[in-house]
Amino acid sequence: MRQIHTTLSIATRGQSLCECTSDIAEWIAQSGINAGLLTVFCQHTSASLLINENAAREVPGDLLRWLDRAVPEGKHYAHDDEGPDDMPAHIKSMLTGNSLTIPVIAGRMALGTWQGIFLAEHRAMPHRRRVVLHLLGE
């Protein structure tokens, strides 16, 4: 049994979904671990991780618009230290989650045909986000 880890740095362009599936898959392929369990963890409270459709171009926009309707800005949140998108970003992150657990089988993530891994940037301004990958296996 071995375990390895690394940290990805993902540049966002403001509120968006940034697919990072291929970066993670490449790291796993280079790891030499054939079977195991991958944990993907976002080190931020205003960004999150999700697995969703990665084939249809419309999906990211639809997801972001739904989150904006569910958690709108301008609702007079008490916490607005970094602007009107600050607290809504924290709520969106809470709803979508900060970690994923994915089986690795035959040296590849056991994702479904249309599934991809996305970093969800919930803030309006661009950021550089850190995502920790931890792989335990053999």
Automatic annotation (TrEMBL):
Superkingdom field: Bacteria
Q: What is this protein called?
A: YjbQ family protein
Gene3D superfamilies attached to this UniProt entry: YjbQ-like
Alphabetical list of NCBIfam families matching this protein: TIGR00149_YjbQ
Q: SUPFAM superfamilies in the record, alphabetically?
A: YjbQ-like
What is the species listed in this Swiss-Prot or TrEMBL entry?
A: Altericroceibacterium indicum
Q: Which family does it belong to?
A: Belongs to the UPF0047 family.
Which InterPro entries does the annotation name? UPF0047_YjbQ-like, YjbQ-like_sf
